[in-house]
Amino acid sequence: xxxxxxxxxxxxxxxxxxxxxxxxxxxxxxxxxxxxxxxxxxxxxxxxxxxxxxxxxxxxxxxxxxxxxxxxxxxxxxxxxxxxxxxxxxxxxxxx
Length: 96
What we know:
Elements: H1 2-7, H2 28-49, H3 52-60, E1 77-84, E2 87-94
Antiparallel strand pairs: 1-2
């Protein structure tokens, strides 16, 4: 390819390129990277201190007993609601 460009006269005789030394610069992306690195470290420390690994171990174990399937004789729960501080919360309670 270089030979073809040379034959066609497409290679310039003088070049005006300047070589600049590479250096590390601080800009907004660098600051954001450092900020999110600090945030990630804080979240990892919080995860480890609040029992995160134990929770993952517990979640990976099979359940101790399977949930019972509802039978035709078992009473179905009836929905009820409770009002607290102006909000309504629905819950299910067994029929009596």
